[in-house]
Automatic annotation (TrEMBL):
Keyword Glycoprotein: yes
Keyword Phosphoprotein: no
Domain Peptidase S8/S53: 660-1112
Organism listed in the record: Arabidopsis suecica
Alphabetical list of InterPro entries matching this protein: DC1, Peptidase_S8/S53_dom, Peptidase_S8_Ser-AS, Peptidases_S8_3, S8pro/Inhibitor_I9, SBT, Subtilisin-like_FN3
Protein family: Belongs to the peptidase S8 family.
Keywords: Glycoprotein, Hydrolase, Protease, Repeat, Serine protease, Signal
Annotated active site: 667, 742, 1076
Pfam family, one: fn3_6
Domain Inhibitor I9, residue spans: 554-632
One of the GO biological process terms: proteolysis
Protein name: Peptidase S8/S53 domain superfamily
GO function term, MF aspect, one: serine-type endopeptidase activity
DC1 domain span: 154-198, 208-256, 292-342, 410-457, 466-517
Length: 1298
């Protein structure tokens, strides 16, 4: 019972409370009064709470106490009405149908639905109730004389007499034994009926059944269940059954007459209604229709069987992308419907509503009707709505198309719509805490307390994602962890809670996504559409509006080459542009994230999609794109590459180890205390340096020195996109200080100082140093650790700002070990922000070196492909870490590991498989070792096999075995992935499948197989060969196949360098692998070349490196490219080859490029003249016909689509002796004829540049793959070699899959 409360003036109210303090029992009274005082007009005391309180207080109440408390209640309950009626009513009465207790007069609030015992109507404001039991009646019913007998031949032939007690007897009509209605009975017949049941209808139609049902006084023997609540039917009492012969549908009387099931119409004697079927569309011809929702255009049926997923194709009915299946698309606009949505019935009945529903649609953006199943969910697209006047019921088609019984993957039992109108909303067992979790309608299990909301019931089980070719499935976990792995969402890059549902790739790529990240937070609204909700404030309902997904995201606004030399003026112009868009100076200031004002003009700002579109339409704007994020892509390296300090004539000595070069590194920061930043013996900082050291968390300017001369950090873009990031609680340092260790590691490789006697736990021992040991390092921290997801990520906006600052500061080379993923954006499009920043850096003479990516060995995966960047692939060193495995038959197998723990003596060896007589689960797959019981692996070394292309399989296998009490694991896998140490130096050794099979055969043939694992050793030089690493991304270039990428290769596997003080480090040094490690090796070489040749352009430096590279390893052995299977490396694996630093210092000739060459390149690939003009800072008009991309003066020739023959041009610049004569030598690709004109090039004091022509013709008559060769100019001292890659395409633009 609820007591309505409207307080009178405080003085009178408090006076009564003061009087009450003298009344006993005091503690109980104070407790009650405190509840009264705390109860305001918006908060009600529930009847279930009041009753025991009042029963305790008034069990034996004193009269003055009763009077006082009810005065308090009456003061709280007065609403200014019913005063006269209330004054005349007695506070306490006796009632003949409730003789046990007196009834008290109270005010009743309508918050909870209750019926009067006597008249079965809703309780009014002034009522009499029993404070000891569940009895309540309207005050007006007290004055009515009781009806002692009734005649109702519809239900019983005899007169029925009023039962003179408030009692629990089973009603013959509703089969319920409740006491909330007067009872009438026929004593001779033992017939009992509630007063409220006398008006039950005879024949009705309900929403849960498609036929009429009629009342029956009893049912045939047999077990029957109510079709609504699913509970058993008592055959001896009344209920409803279907009127159709052969239909066994039955329902309880009360269930069938619920207001959400029955429309209130008695149909006895009424003819059956006939409903005309209305077709949703008119068929125009085969596959062409005119749909009622889009009558002004025709729709065509499209086959979606073999199409790539397009996230922009969204069904207008269900607001879902076209994941699978055929669809209808408008022949004149972008209107789309799923085939099944186009066939939706125009009229239906749905179980949760008693009236017929009609299919509708709404083209209005502002919605005024919410979903009837959810008061917090707004509908969009198509919906079913009730046509009854004043009803307002509306249901999205997603909800309307599911019914009961529901078989759902989230639960083992069938689910039913058993909710009753008067019940409290149930909480969905799956989503629990979501904003959709409470609803009046849920699918419920009748075997347990499981409930499923409509949202969870309608989530698609299979979906597609734009960056994954595979199907993604919805996980079934809810409320409990199903995995010990850490998952993170590919979209928001936040950690995924394994206790909640999420989408995961069905294949091996392990991609995972939050549901809301993929489908949107407003699941059934179109992006940008708006609606409202009602919020109670100060007793009033206030209308609040919202827009679906109207969230501001960081966008990069690129304005091209800066038009003014004053940086402050450039920044002010950026603020003025934002001000004009946003309307206020304050909003412009708050929106701005970065102003790019040194190397080029542009800014990053927080904008909505509509704001971004408006600013993109301004005439000065080149591009506006959303911010994107990039991922993070030694003791032996330099000796292996022949860059040795032992030779007094080496490049190191000629350049004083690069002392006058400055290497800028954009990465995760720097650990300044590391020995690799020692500046002992360094001279003054180079005069062209204009940078500085920024202070921050645990970092001051004193952390810099003559080695580490600059350190800055850029976090605004990252923070704007990651609102959950807490800078005070994050493990990362809000300063240039490195937390991840990646930035310190790559800085070491590029330019670390000499540090002798370093190893990783005894492996790979020697002296650590960078390629240019005396070069200066400037760190630009743009990558940050996101604690929630345990990942490090880099905002494109922050990277661009770091590049802008580096251009101002005076770096000579930019080393960027970061990368995006294919598909790529064009070079004039700043979706790839690094490409745009690199272009401006190169025009200022800064060589930009980037990692090629870690997505190999698949073709077309190389990134950072702009022709002005130097893109680096990764190779192995001539070093490995063999780990002896001795089997019980004394056979020794040399696996690979970084195991530095004690020798593991002969130990039981097991391959988990069913011996044939066990009911347990067994799996020898490395990723599924957790399926084995602990005793299968406990105390043993476990052999497992994996086909996974990811190195993480070994780490997971080690974790599963260690957790089960195992002592070691042997992983049989495909060769080529970097070896990693396992946590806590757990013995985990990798072998290939052949050796793994040998071990398996031994284990199966031996009754008690055993194995011994010895610590790993370091093996350097032959017979260990050099290979292109499996993970190293491969060409050809996916955006411009005629531009060879990668350019060059360098060691990037198991590289020992400095890091932070991490768990896995040894005295601050660690071995890491990736093209991230290969790129700074090239950066170090570039720093040396820049110190030797200050006047060389970035293109000349790149040419010197490419044309002098090794195409074998340094010992003359062929370089293989790891993969499945391994193959001889070609230019798409390693570009020009393996870098040869000493040769690069004196290349003889170079293929140089300048601004005009880059403009001709962009014209040749068809870029917009306006975009090119703004990019380069001057008006550009492309020639007609446009130039050929094949003439772009790269140190390579790549012809991706040769049909017959083609002639192209290259220009060579002499950087060697003034008088030089070079002759050509060609290794033509197989099946091609290559002619070079002239065959001799002569250089002298006046002739420093000479061009030559190359004619290439094909002998092939079919479309082929690429064939490879080379073209070399030689003067007997210098060999200037470029790779030649050609593919025949007789049928142009043809996808070959026959």
């Amino acid at each position: 019972m609820n007591l309505h409360s409207q307080p009178k003036p405080e003085s009178e109210f408090m006076s009564l409370i003061t009087q009450a303090f003298s009344v006993s029992p005091l503690s109980l009274l104070i407790s009650l009064i405190s509840q009264i005082i705390s109860t305001d007009s918006d908060r009600k005391l529930e009847w279930d709470l009041d009753r025991p309180l009042c029963g305790t207080l008034f069990g034996e109440p004193e009269p003055e106490l009763v009077s006082l408390v009810y005065q308090i209640f009456s003061l709280k309950g007065c609403n200014g009405k019913n005063h006269e009626e209330y004054e005349q009513a007695r506070d306490e009465i006796k009632y003949h149908l409730h003789r046990k207790h007196s009834l008290q007069l109270v005010f009743f609030s309508e918050g909870k639905e209750r019926k009067c015992y006597c008249c079965d109507e809703d309780l009014q404001m002034v009522i009499y109730c029993c404070l000891s039991c569940d009895f309540a009646m309207n005050m007006t019913c007290v004055k009515k004389p009781p009806v002692l007998s009734i005649d109702h031949p519809k239900w019983h032939e005899h007169t029925l007499a009023l039962f003179p007690r408030h009692a629990f007897l089973t009603c013959n009509l509703c089969a319920l034994a409740d006491s909330n209605s007067p009872l009438y009975m026929c004593p001779p017949c033992d017939f009992v009926v509630h007063l409220r049941c006398i008006d039950l209808p005879r024949v009705i139609r309900i929403s849960r059944h498609h036929h009429r049902i009629s009342f029956t006084s009893s049912f045939d023997q047999g077990r029957l269940s109510c079709g609504i609540c699913q509970r058993n039917i008592d055959n001896d009492y009344g209920g409803y059954s279907c009127i159709k012969d052969g239909c066994s549908y039955v329902a309880h009387s009360k269930c069938a007459t619920q207001r959400n099931v029955w429309d209130g119409k008695e149909l006895e004697g009424e003819p059956e209604e006939e409903t005309e079927e209305i077709e949703p569309f008119v068929k125009i011809s085969d596959g062409i229709i005119q749909h009622f929702s889009h009558q002004h255009h025709y729709l065509r049926l499209d086959d979606n069987t073999n199409r790539d997923y397009d996230e922009n194709k969204e069904c207008q009915a269900c607001i879902r992308p076209i994941y699978f299946g055929n669809f209808y698309s408008c022949m004149q606009c972008d209107f789309i419907l799923h085939e099944e949505c186009a066939n939706l019935s125009r009229q239906i009945y749905h179980p949760i509503h008693p009236h017929m529903l009609s299919l509708g649609y709404d083209n209005i953006v502002d919605h005024e009707v919410m979903c009837a199943a959810y008061t917090s969910l707004w509908t969009d697209g198509f919906f079913y709505e009730c046509g009854k006047e004043g009803c307002g019921f509306k249901l999205p088609v997603q909800f309307a198309t599911i019914s009961e019984p529901l078989v759902h993957e989230s639960h083992m039992h069938h689910l039913f719509l058993t909710s009753k109108p008067e019940e409290e909303p149930r909480r969905c067992s799956v989503c629990k805490e979501s904003r959709y979790a409470r609803t009046n309608e849920t699918f419920n299990c009748i075997e347990c307390d499981f409930a499923l909301c409509f949202v969870c019931a309608t989530l698609p089980q299979k979906v597609r994602y734009k960056h994954d070719k595979h199907v993604l499935s919805l996980t079934l976990s809810y409320g409990k962890e199903t995995s010990t792995m850490t998952y993170w969402c590919e979209i928001c890059e936040e950690t995924i809670d394994p206790t909640k549902r999420f989408y995961v790739c069905d294949e091996y790529c392990c991609l995972t996504l939050h549901i809301n990240c993929l489908l949107g937070w407003d699941l059934y609204m179109k992006p940008g559409s708006s609606s409202f909700y009602l919020e109670k404030k100060e007793g009033l309902l206030v209308k609040r509006s919202f827009v679906a997904e109207a969230k501001k995201k960081v966008h990069i606004v690129y304005l091209g080459e800066k038009q003014h030399d004053d940086p402050e003026f450039v920044t002010e112009s950026h603020h003025r542009m934002l001000w004009s868009l946003l309307g206020s100076k304050e909003d412009a200031h708050n929106s701005m994230v970065h102003s790019y004002r040194h190397g080029f003009s542009g800014f990053a700002a927080k904008l909505t999609k509509s704001q971004a579109k408006k600013i993109a339409d301004l005439p000065d704007v080149v591009h506006v794109v959303p911010d994107s994020f990039y991922k993070l892509a030694t003791t032996r390296t330099w000796d292996y590459l022949g860059l040795s300090a032992a030779n007094p004539k080496s490049l190191l000595h000629e350049t004083n180890m690069g002392e006058h070069s400055i290497i800028g590194v954009i990465d995760t920061g720097v650990w300044p205390e590391s020995e690799v930043f020692n500046d002992s013996g360094f001279g003054p900082v180079p005069s062209h340096w204009k940078g500085s050291c920024e202070s921050g968390e645990n970092f001051t300017s004193s952390n810099c020195n003559k080695k580490l001369i600059g350190a800055k950090y850029f976090i605004s873009g990252f923070q704007a996109e990651n609102e959950s990031f807490n800078s005070t609680e994050s493990l990362d340092f809000i300063s240039p200080r490195d937390f991840d260790g990646h930035g310190t590691h790559v800085s070491t490789i590029a330019g670390g100082s000499y540090v002798p006697n370093i190893s990783y736990k005894g492996l790979a021992g020697g002296t650590v140093r960078g390629g240019a040991p005396r070069a200066r390092i400037a760190m630009y921290k743009a990558c940050w650790y996101l604690d929630d997801e345990d990942i490090t990520t880099c905002s494109s906006a922050d990277i661009l700002k770091a590049m802008d600052e580096a251009m101002h500061d005076g770096v000579d080379v930019l080393s960027i070990s970061l990368g995006s993923e294919v598909p790529l954006s064009d070079e004039t499009d700043i979706r790839d922000g690094m490409t745009t920043g690199a272009f401006h850096a190169v025009l200022k003479g800064i060589t930009v070196v980037c990692s090629g990516g870690n997505s190999g060995p698949d073709a077309l995966t190389v990134t950072n492909t702009a022709p002005w960047m130097v893109t680096v692939a990764a190779t192995t060193l001539d070093r490995s870490f063999p780990t002896p495995l001795t089997l019980g038959n004394n056979k020794v197998i040399l696996g690979q590991a970084m195991y530095t723990g004690p020798e593991l003596g002969f130990t039981s060896l097991v391959y988990p498989e069913n011996p044939g007589n066990s009911n347990e689960s067994f799996s020898g797959t490395c990723e599924e070792l957790f399926l084995n019981s602990n005793h299968t692996m406990e105390g043993k070394v476990v052999l497992c096999f994996t086909t996974s292309p990811y190195g993480g399989a070994a780490l997971r296998a080690a974790r599963y075995v260690k957790r089960a009490g195992g002592l070691g694991v042997i992983i049989a896998r495909h060769p080529g992935f970097a070896i990693q140490p396992c946590q806590d130096d757990f013995p985990c050794v990798a072998v290939d499948w052949v050796l793994g099979t040998d071990i398996l055969l031994y284990a199966r043939s031996s009754g008690s197989p055993v194995v011994k694992i010895q610590p790993s050793k370091t093996l350097v030089g032959q017979p260990v060969g050099t290979k292109v690493a499996t993970f190293s991304s491969r060409g050809p270039n996916s955006i411009a196949p005629a531009i060879l990428k990668p350019d060059i290769a360098a060691p990037g596997v198991s590289i020992l360098a400095a890091t932070t003080n991490t768990t896995f480090s040894d005295r601050g040094f660690i071995m890491l692998s990736g093209t991230s490690m290969a790129a700074p090796a090239i950066s170090g070489v570039v720093a040396l070349l820049k110190a030797l040749h200050r006047d060389w352009s970035p293109a000349a430096i790149r040419s010197a490196i490419v044309t002098t590279a090794w195409r074998t390893d340094p010992f003359g052995e062929q370089i293989f490219a790891e993969g499945s299977p391994p193959k001889l490396a070609d230019p798409f694996d390693y570009g020009g080859g393996l870098v040869n630093p000493e040769k690069a210092a004196n290349p003889g000739l170079v293929y140089d490029l300048g601004l005009e060459d880059y403009i001709l390149y962009m014209c040749s690939v068809g870029y917009n003249e306006t975009s090119i003009s703004q990019l380069v800072g001057k008006r550009t008009v492309c020639s007609n016909p446009k130039p050929s991309i094949l003439d772009f003066n790269l140190p390579s020739i790549t012809i991706p689509n040769l049909k017959n023959e083609v002639t192209l041009t290259r220009t060579l610049t002499n950087v060697g002796p003034l008088k030089s004569v070079y002759k050509v030598a060609v290794e033509p690709p197989l099946g091609f004829q290559v002619t070079v004109t002239p065959e001799t090039l002569v250089f002298n004091a006046r002739t420093k540049k000479v061009y030559y022509k190359v004619k290439v013709s094909t002998k092939h008559k079919i479309n082929t793959g690429f064939y490879f060769g080379s073209l070399t100019w030689s003067d007997s001292v210098h060999n200037v070699t470029i790779p030649l890659s050609v593919r025949t395409q007789i049928l142009q633009n043809y996808y070959d899959e026959n």
